[in-house]
Design goal:
Layout (H helix, E strand, L loop, with lengths): L16 H8 L5 H12 L7 E5 L3 H11 L8 E5 H11 L6 H9 L5 H15 L1 H9 L5 H10 L1 H6 L2 H16 L7 E2 H9 L10 H14 L7 H10 L2 E2 L6 E5 L5 H9 L3 E4 H6 L8 E5 L2 H10 L7 E3 L6 H12 L3 E5 L4 H13 L3 E2 L4 H9 L5 E2 L12 H9 L1 E2 L6 H9 L1
Parallel strand pairs: 3-4, 7-8, 7-9, 9-10
Antiparallel strand pairs: 1-2, 5-6, 5-8, 11-12
Helix pairs in contact: 2-5, 6-10, 7-10, 10-12, 12-13, 13-17, 16-21, 19-20
């Protein structure tokens, strides 16, 4: 840190350290010395009064000894810095006055303006790893890096410029290696890049920054939750728990295993790992998508190898399901979706629609009304209402009729469509 400069210069005349210590260096005057240092750090003049509330008798006595007079009997203790400066100069204890005395007692005083300037320079330097990465390796991340400078995320995560430079250096190293081709597990990537398989675990500052950069790199949309993070990592070829996320298919082709299953009319279970490493090589014109496994199982039993391509979400769309459906949509496939006619079913359908476009498959208000008419013993509708972006009339119909229609209830209609 630089020494206090300006009007409070370092002493040119010698300070009588022994007398200064006895006069100003005792514990009962520490508060006064501290006030002076703070003023010096802010480049404020050492004039005018300073006040200490509720002083002890020792603090009063110390001020009396310093100034050679009683400081007064008020509830607060007031000391004029001009008077202290004059005593120090006149006595010869510190010929250059109060600033020189405090510096001799406690060491050089750093100017806050200098400290702030150095800190801001250090924060600017902390982003050097991104400045080195972007021009030559990742120019597409320029806007992301600029946002990162401005939104304070790196500062909040790292706390200090030194920690931020290290953190951003690791972030740059990870983004330099992405996307991973072929896809690898997230822990394996972390281990090979940082020597620590847990370096990119959820909640770590490094994972937060790298995932932010991954989304900028791949254009992955905003979201939240564990499933969303799984998909975001997968968009850059990093598989998080890549074997537990699965999707069911029937008569979908494009790999040796899928082709065999389609020829046999048997359902196939695809993992996220398979889909990111070896997605289907072909994409049919139309793929139907259902919510419940019972639909796919019955289609396999009834139609077998004659069934057109069918995908089952098994409830909320998994990372594997979304990866497959995005792949198919990107290669020209039209997706047609059907789910349960209840509030939970509408939420699942809406969640899918936020990630990939689809068209209704017997999943409009008119289809619901027809199903209700054909199902006199349908269960009552429960839960909290929601919207349906593909058919705004559907929530109103559910509210009006007040019953839920599960996919299994309209299974004959769905099988009829598949059998055409």
């Amino acid at each position: 840190m630089s020494e206090h400069t300006g009007t409070h210069r370092q002493p040119a005349a010698p300070v009588d350290r022994d007398r200064l210590t006895r006069l100003l260096g005792g514990p009962d005057l520490a508060w006064l010395v501290d006030r002076v240092r703070r003023r010096m750090a802010r480049d404020e003049p050492l004039t005018g009064p300073v006040t200490l509330g509720a002083p002890t008798s020792g603090q009063r006595a110390a001020v009396e000894g310093l100034l050679g007079r009683a400081p007064g009997a008020g509830r607060a203790l007031n000391v004029r810095l001009d008077a202290v400066d004059a005593v120090l100069r006149r006595s010869g204890v510190s010929p250059d006055g109060l600033a020189a005395a405090v510096t001799a007692l406690t060491g050089p005083v750093a100017r806050l303006a200098d400290v702030r300037e150095r800190e801001e320079r250090a924060w600017r330097d902390a982003f050097d790893p991104l400045d080195e990465l972007i021009p030559t390796h990742r120019p597409e991340l320029a806007d992301w890096a600029e946002r990162l400078r401005g939104d304070g995320l790196a500062r909040r995560l790292a706390r200090t410029p030194q920690a931020a430079k290290s953190l951003l250096g690791d972030t740059a190293e990870a983004l330099r290696r992405l996307p991973a081709e072929p896809a690898v597990s997230l822990p394996a990537f972390a281990a090979s890049t940082f020597g620590d398989a847990h370096a990119l675990d959820d909640g770590t500052p490094l994972a937060t920054l790298v995932l932010s950069g991954v989304r900028a790199l791949t254009g992955f949309p905003d979201g939240s939750g564990a499933e969303w993070r799984r998909e975001a990592w997968a968009s850059a070829g990093l598989l998080k728990d890549a074997l537990s996320a699965t999707v069911l298919t029937l008569c979908l082709r494009g790999s040796p295993a899928l082709d065999w299953s389609a020829d046999e009319g048997e359902p196939a279970v695809l993992t996220l790992r398979q889909l990111t490493r070896h997605p289907p090589r072909t994409a049919p014109a139309v793929v139907r998508v259902c919510e419940n496994p019972a639909v796919l199982a019955t289609a396999a039993d009834t139609l077998g190898a004659a069934c057109p391509p069918l995908v089952c979400l098994q409830g909320q769309p998994s990372a594997a399901a979304l990866t497959l459906l995005r792949h198919l949509h990107a290669h020209g496939t039209t997706l047609r979706y059907h789910g349960d006619f209840d509030w939970g079913g509408l939420r699942i359908a809406s969640a899918l629609l936020r990630h990939v476009p689809w068209h209704p498959w017997r999943y409009r208000a008119t289809d619901y009304r027809t199903a209700v008419t054909a199902t006199p013993l349908a269960s009552p509708l429960t839960g909290t209402s929601t919207t349906a972006g593909w058919d705004p009339d559907l929530p109103a119909a559910l509210t009006e009729l007040g019953v839920r229609i599960e996919e299994e209830t309209v299974l004959d209609d769905l099988l009829a469509d598949l059998g055409q």
